[in-house]
Each structure stands twice: as structure tokens, then as C-alpha cells.
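Bench log, entry 3. Co-assembly request; chain sequences pasted below exactly as received.
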Amino acid sequence: MKRTLVIADQTVELEISRRRGKTVMTWDGEEIPIDIVRVEKSSYSVIMDGRSVGVNIDRIRNADPDLHGFRSTTYDGAYEFTLQDPRKKLLAEAMARSKRSEGNLIRALMPGKVLKLLVHEGETVEEGQPLLILEAMKMQNEYTAPTTARVAKVHVEEGVNMEINAPMISLQQVEA
Amino acid sequence: MPVTQLLIANRGEIACRIIRTCRELDIPTVAVYSDSDRSAMHVRLAILSCPIGPTPARESYMRVDKLIEACRKTGADAIHPGYGFISEDPEAARQIIEAGLTWIGPSPEVLEKMNNKITAREIARSVGCPVLPGIQEILDDEALLDEARKVGYPLMVKPVLGRDGKGMRLVKTAGDLRRALPRVKGDAIFSFWDERVYVEKALIHPRHIEVQIAADAHGNCIHLWEREGSVQRRFQQLCEEAPSPGVSPELRRTLGEMAVKIAKAVGYVGVGTVEFLLDQEGNPWFLEMTCRIQGGHAVTEWITGQDLVKLQIDIAQGRELPLRQEDVPMWGHAIQCRINAEDPDREFAPSSGRIQYLRSPQGHNLRNDSGVYFGWDLSPFYAPLVAKISTWGLSRSEALARMHSALMEFRLGGVRNNIAFFRILLEHKQFISGDLHTGILDHAWWKQKAVGPNLKFAVAAALFDELELEERRAQQPSPRPDCATTPAAWKSHNKFNRL
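Structure output for the full assembly:
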């Protein structure tokens, strides 16, 4: 079985197969024998080259169902990545592209209610200028413009409840 | 009045912790629960349980009338408020006492005085405790800005009836202050139904030191040393230790004496905490008094061997303190980490969801105060606390090493959490050296690299999971072709395939 791994800005071609009871992972062409067993529902014990590491996996739902999102936790922290079936025609670059444009989209960092909207579409805002106030965790949180920019689109209205990561305001860079 | 049955007006780990002490004391416990907490851990542990309303805390855990009614129904004659919710609300305490119940906490009069931060400052000043320069009077915004210039920036703007760090804001310029005032007032009204704010000189990189005190109704008052709670985010502590690595024996004595003086001046009866800031020269400044059990109390229990919840219940029953000041021990060192479902890499934004995996640490001199279990849904309505892990050691380095080991073992799946953050904190040079201050988390120096040393292991497990999934799918019979004729059937088939 083949998968393409995308983590941060890195892409790796992977393959995993069982041969005569042994599991082998191919990592960018390099064959690595792995000894892996499922020990609990979402928990694996992995032994590779004598080193034993316990890994818990959480599947993260992705907007694109062909990108299988994972959060794997080991003793040294969490790794977030996606595995993608290379047969499916969705390119990893498209993901990277959407990630790059992220910087111009203000998202809700916590679930909460939009208390006040301070800008209009088309308006030019300066760096640090407040854009809106989101009431979350019993606190009023001010979202400010990261750079000088034009407000391209406002995705919210006052009084509306926001999910975490919900897009709120799109900004467009203005050329100096 | 004797406590024969105790109702706990709280939830989560603190409710469970109180239930444990009550079991030891052979006092039957009553849990109350909101709609979404029916299967919560505290309900499972308590002997009696009583529903008190909808999920939002204001309509359940903070409804005093419902709590009193729950006491009537179940026969409880005392209420322990835990921390948060109604624990520091004088009006709640008054109503509970008027209903003929025992309130496990200081009197409503004391709560009223200490809740008002301006009155609290006055009391501290009156017993000779240094108080930071600030503006006491309630002024309109323009007058406040004028006065603020005289005090000098940076300043801290706080709600007068504030607590738990809610609404507090640090301002560095007059412009900041002007912008902050409506925010702080908004937060103050939202959380405390009161829009008064006051301004206090802000210290640069202070230490946060709190002294645990206990006072009985017979005029005895002792302190149980200090805790350091400098590791904070959003003015809320993440990690506590006792004793503080930054407090000398002389300062310890001074702080303890000041805390006892303040408690006596206000006529405090119960268990509480007097909080101080230490400036960079190590001078203490009174901050506020917290009139309830605190989230960090476990580290004090470790080094003194006392059970603070038992002390609270004994004091409420009119018993004398079991020990005098000179008998309060100080053994070794303890540290506590609050494991929260929150994302340290995204400004500690809370995470909610089902706990898909839970392996709690075990071992020597380790304590785990938790209110969750495998499969429990963490609701966004309540604090995202999963567990408080504390360890004890003969020395600070031993306690820290033990905590580090515990964090390596702790595994939590399904929600983002701060376990890895704490592990990195415990490897941080500044933290190890004990040179702490409240700004230690101002810059996100702990941010995880996406690609760590165990990437191949992390990916191998996911890849193997995909393989097993594919193998399971291959064994399933393929859908009959005639099902796929209508668009609706095609859609559901497609969906099924992607589960």
C-alpha cells in the first residue's frame, strides 16, 4: 500500500507491506523492517532497529476527505501530518498553496461570539489595528491586523457564534 | 455545627478530590450535576447525586437556590464550593448560611471585603504590608488617564471585583490604557456584574508567590509556607511548586507573618491564600487574597503532610487547628503541572472533544488529581482541565526529575493538550535554575518542531493503521451494482467508502 506523507513543507513517498508475517515500511526508497502491534484501540507499540516507541494516533477530519489527517503522539510530543493515496489525483502542492494564503485569513483561535466588528469590507487597515472583538473563555479578545492590508472579505456578523478555526476576516496585502 | 452530609457545589477534579477526603472522614457526599455532566466522574464517585439544571454554569452550578433545594432533597447539611463558580461569592455564602446550612469557607463579610480589591489593598496597607502604587478612587476615563500618568506606566488594569485573573490587562502607554478600559469593563460586567476598574503599577517580570493560611474560629491562625505560581498564561497558573526556589528563609518568615496578619485583620476563618508579587530585588508586594481552596493546594499538602480540605471541614465544624505554627513541617519539594486540553502552540486555545486515549502516569511519590476518564467528552462550557499531576522529592531537582518522568509516561489522545509543553518546560534552563517570573511564557520558545526525532515511529503507526483499514475494507463485500444506479445511492456509497 502506498501513501504520500505531507508534514510541514516536507513530502515523503511511503509504502507499507506485509511479507511472510513481517511488516516492511519503505521510506523514500529505503526499506525499514518494523515490528508493530496494536496494543489498545488507538495505540501502537512500534519497534524499529531495536528502539521501542509507543504511538497513539488520532485521526483528524480534513476538509478534503482524500487527505487523511493524523495526530500521532509519542513521548516527545505530537506530530501532525497527512497521508494521501497517491492514486487520488489531489496534489500535495495544492495543500501547500492553501496553507500559504492562510496568513491573510483571520481565524477564530477559540470558539466564541463576535461581540463587535470594527472594520468594513474594502477598508484599509494598519498593522495592529483592531479588527473585531471575540468573546471567548469569558474574555473579550481583540483580533488585530498582522500587517497593513485591505479588508477583502468579512465572513462574520456581530452576535454570531464562531467555531474554533472558523474564518472571520480575509485580508489582502497592499503594495507599499 | 457538625457536618453529617456534604454537598459539593462543583464538578471535575476538585469535586472528586473533596469526595476522597470525605470518604476518609466517613462523611457521605452529594454530587450535583448539570445536563451534560450526568456521567461525569464526580457523579460516579459521590454517594448521592442531584441534577441542578442546564449545562451553562450560570444556570446550574452557580444557582444557589437549586443548590439549597438539592440539600433539602438529599439531606445534606453543608456545602463545599470548591474553587471557581460560587466559591468567592458573598451573596451565595449568605443565602446558604441563612438557609441553615454550613458553608465551607470564610464568612460572607470576609468574602465581601476581600472580593473588593481596593478594600483588600487597604486592609493589607493597614497592617504594614507593602502595596503597589495605584489609583484607589473610581474615576471617569479621562481623570483615570490623568492619574495614570502620575503613577507611571506600565500599569495593570483590573476589575475591582475581579478574581482568577479574569479581565486583567497590562498596558504600556496611555493609548493602550484608553483602548483597554472598555475591554476590561466589558469583561468585568460579564464575569462579575460590576464595571468598576482600578489601576495598579505593574512590575516587570515579578514572581508570583502565594502563602497558604489556615485560621480557626478560636483565634488561631497559621501559615503553611508558600507556593510559587509564576508560570502563567492569561494570568492563570499552569504549574506550581512549593517551596518557592526564589524565597529565602528570612523572606519566608516575613511573608508568612504578613499573611497571618492580614488574615487576622480581616477576621478570616477557614483556609485561604494571601498572594504576593516579588519584584526583581525580591521585595514583596501584596496582590490579593484568595478566599477558598486553590488549584495548587496539592504541593502544600505534599510538603506539610496536611489535608487542606480536611482542615476546611474541621474549621467549619468549629474545631481547633490541629497544629501550631512551630509544628508545621516542611519536607522536601513538590511540583504540580496542570494538564489542560489546550494547544500551547496556538496561544493556549482550549480544545474540546472526546478523550480517545488516556494513560495516566504511575510511580513513586506521584499524585494524580483528575476528573475525567477514557471516553469522557470534554465540554467547551467548562475549564479544559484534564488532570493535575504532582510529584514530591527530597530536593527540587528530584521532584522535577520525577515530574519529567511522569510526563513521558502520560499519554492523552483525542484532544490537543499541554503534556509535551510541560516536558519542554522542565528541560528549560531558566526553569531548572529556578529563576522564574510571570513573563516566562511571553514568547513561545517551546513551540514544537513539526519534525521531531520520532517522526518515523509516528508515521509508521499511522501508515499501519491505514493498512489495517484497507485490509478490513477489502474483506467487506463490495456493494451490489444495482444499488449504484440512483444518484442518492451513489452518494451514500461514496460516503461509506470514506468513513
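Chain B touches chain A through 52 residues (CB under 8 Å). DSSP finds 16 helices and 23 strands in chain B.
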